[in-house]
Write a structure and sequence with these properties.
Largest sheet: 8 strands, antiparallel
Low-confidence stretches: 12-23, 383-392
Structural class: alpha+beta
Shape: globular
Order of helices and strands: HEEEEEEEEEEEEEEEEEEHEEHHHH
Bound molecules: calcium ion
Helix content: 10-25%
Distance between the termini: 13 Å
């Protein structure tokens, strides 16, 4: 027992020392919905339901949910949702959320369903809000003929600026990145994007890994001094582009791709005003004028940097295990097992109901010496994490964990 008490104390001291040298890391969070709730698998971010939303969402295996068949007229029977190619994922199901009225008034959220999102990030240097980021969704759309908005064509994802003003019109609660049905036959098909540009082809009741990157800090060489924010879109690791001449700076050329503008992401109340004076949470799968649809979401990944086409290509298509699968011991999923992970493990020592990002690497929902041993066995200090721990602290940590490991087996 003495060693069990010693280790967390040691890790705590280590964490304090690390804080002095660590640079601000990217805020990266992934949700996999494997535990019947909205907690992230790893990372500092969080999401939660508006009003009574969490009473109408469900968790379970994908194939436990019924969806509309791909072909034929509106059915009176349903089929099981498809599994992924590599298995039947744990998912969060959300129904088609109703919009609320009066889209041209500032959002008050009364009666709204959907999710708020806290990226737990800092402002892009020089700006009020997060102007460079990436969202990735492992998602299945079960009923594309029953989406919202005009012609029942739209299903929104994130809304960074509900109070946005485009072309002089206030567009309260309009999402910034949509699925839009672009074909009904031979099967319902959606593209992805915004502002009338929806390339790509996602079929109903199919799993896909959909990524969107936003960079609002770019300038347009053709318009010196003007901004040219860029939205880039990917399906299963492959970039999709429109053919209307607006690529890739689709949102900049549209006139609203400027820093802290419509497409930027909030850090929450008090986090910094948008260009339109908005300062509240960004939302997910909420759209004020009903441009929504039901979804099965297996994983969602967010990072406050613009991932490259090469990185997204490497991630490929949807998988049961999630979008980014950290190596053993890598609590914060930054690719290295170092003192940052040790400090996370130490901060959650003996915690129950634990997730990977708290230091539970063996999946028993406890953070204890078993996880510390796993971390020690996979220690890879150094690399691109940005922090180079002093060799002495690494040796101390490893010796502490190793001692504990041998002690347990005597
Ligand atoms: Ca918006
Ligand atoms: Ca999942
Ligand atoms: Ca790590
Ligand atoms: Ca554990």
């Amino acid at each position: 027992m003495r060693l069990r008490r010693f280790l967390p104390c040691f890790l705590g001291v280590l964490a304090m020392s690390v804080c002095l040298v660590a640079s601000a890391p990217a805020a990266t969070t992934q949700f996999d919905f494997n535990n019947g709730d909205l907690r992230p698998t790893f990372g500092p971010g969080s999401m939660w339901g508006m009003n009574d939303t969490e009473s109408v969402i469900q968790f379970g295996k994908a194939t436990s949910f019924l969806v509309v068949p791909e072909e034929g007229p509106l059915p009176d029977t349903y089929v099981a949702a498809a599994p992924m190619a590599d298995g039947d994922p744990d998912v969060m199901y959300f129904p088609k959320f109703p919009g609320v009225t009066d889209r041209y008034n500032i959002v008050d959220w009364a009666g709204a369903r959907g999710f708020f999102f806290d990226p737990a990030s800092v402002a892009t240097p020089g700006y009020n809000r997060i102007n460079k980021f990436t969202f990735i969704f492992d998602i299945l759309i079960p009923d594309m003929m029953n989406l919202g908005g005009s012609a029942s064509n739209y299903m929104g994802t994130y809304d960074g600026e509900p109070d946005q003003i485009d072309g002089g019109n206030r567009r309260g609660g309009d999402c910034e990145f949509f699925f839009s049905r672009t074909a009904d036959v031979p099967e319902p098909t959606c593209g992805i994007g915004i502002d009338g540009s929806y390339p790509g082809a996602i079929g109903q009741n199919e799993w896909h890994r959909v990524a969107v990157t936003i960079d609002l800090t770019l300038t347009n060489p053709a318009n010196p001094g003007g901004y040219a924010g860029e939205m880039r879109r990917y399906i299963d690791g492959v970039e999709v582009v429109a053919t209307d001449g607006r690529e890739p700076k689709i949102i900049g050329l549209q006139g609203n791709g400027f820093p802290d503008g419509r497409f930027s992401l909030s850090r929450g109340p008090g986090g910094g005003l948008s260009a339109n004076g908005w300062d509240y949470w960004s939302s997910l799968f909420y759209d004020r004028d009903n441009e929504m649809g039901a979804g099965l979401l297996s994983s969602m990944y967010f990072t406050d940097r613009v991932m490259s086409a090469e990185e997204i290509a490497t991630l490929g298509g949807p998988t049961v295990a999630g979008i980014v699968v950290p190596g053993l011991g890598d609590a914060n999923a930054d690719g290295v097992v170092d003192d940052k992970d040790a400090s996370i493990l130490g901060a959650n020592w003996m915690a129950g109901g634990a997730m990977w990002g708290m230091g539970d690497f063996n999946g028993d929902h406890m953070v204890n010496d078993k996880d510390a041993a796993i971390m020690a066995a996979h220690w890879t200090a150094g690399g691109f994490g940005g922090t180079v721990p002093e060799p002495g602290t690494v040796v101390l940590l490893l010796s502490a964990v190793a001692t504990l490991w041998f002690w347990r087996r005597r």
